[in-house]
Amino acid sequence: MHVEFSSSIREIDPADWDAVVHRAGAPVFYQHAYVSAYERLPLTEVDAFAYFVVRDADRAVAVAPAYLQTAAKPLRRLHEAYPEAAGQPALLSPSWHCYDAHVPATADVLPRLLDTMNRTASILGARWCGFMNVQRGGALSHGLRAAGLPARHLNDRWVTGLTTYAHYLASLSPRARANLRRNERRAQEAGVTTEVLPVHFASLDQITLLCVKTASRFENNGYHPGTTFPRFVTALDDLAHVIEVRQHGRLVAAGVCLTDATRFHTWTCGVDYAVEGGYSPFAVLFAESVKLAIRLGKSILEDGRDNAAFKRRHGLRPCHLDAVLHRV
User: Fold this and answer.
1) CB neighbours of 195 closer than 8 A, spacing ≥ 6?
2) Which InterPro entries does its entry note (predicted)?
């Protein structure tokens, strides 16, 4: 067994990489097409890229992308958990825009991979090395703990299972269910329409402006770089679906959603709350996201981070995410 290092995802065969990702059931953020788009059009400042492929003989058995980063934005949450790492270069896996860290591999591979990551971090001049957004209690979490690495809470992501829309509504409290139905009725009366579009037909420049405005409400400035974000979404091609919500033709909400084998990710969204008609554009967008996930046959709804009150009210449960960093 040996570990191969590459400084560009273009040097790695997509079929080799994706075979490991699919066998492990890793999320869309690990697919070669997503990682490739992130290398060509990074959504945050990256000083160097690192990709690891573990092979047993000639067969790839593990893959991991990592990014050398120093910039504070959008890594503010990480530096709140690790203030001693602020302003220092760190080799991190995955990117901040992935909220579900995995190492697509078997457990016995992780120690060898960690050793190679540490040596690579040292060569690249990193002061820190580790993982962000590791689900507490998951396979990676257990493996890192077994390696003696401590974790610090970073954030939560929100998830629920799906079967039918009727079943989803039935799982909610009577008040939440009534609110969703009332909001849908008011939106229809106010002339609201929704449309699901491929990325090449979506109004990505307008959507980017909405996303930037919405992110600022949660102090996530810099999460959607205006010149790069629409090009990145376009590069995702059929990994992404765009939902546009319009009132009399004006864009009032939009979501960029990602899919993998079983999951539907409401990855990012933008909302204009200055509307008439007594409805919530965000609630319209959320309901349409649930319906689209079900139409696409996805059994898991991944609803990202933040906005905990809304998500708890609408039947999602938190998964605690940790950061696991150590000095190089």
Assistant:
1) 243, 244, 246
2) Acyl_CoA_acyltransferase, BioF2-like_GNAT_dom
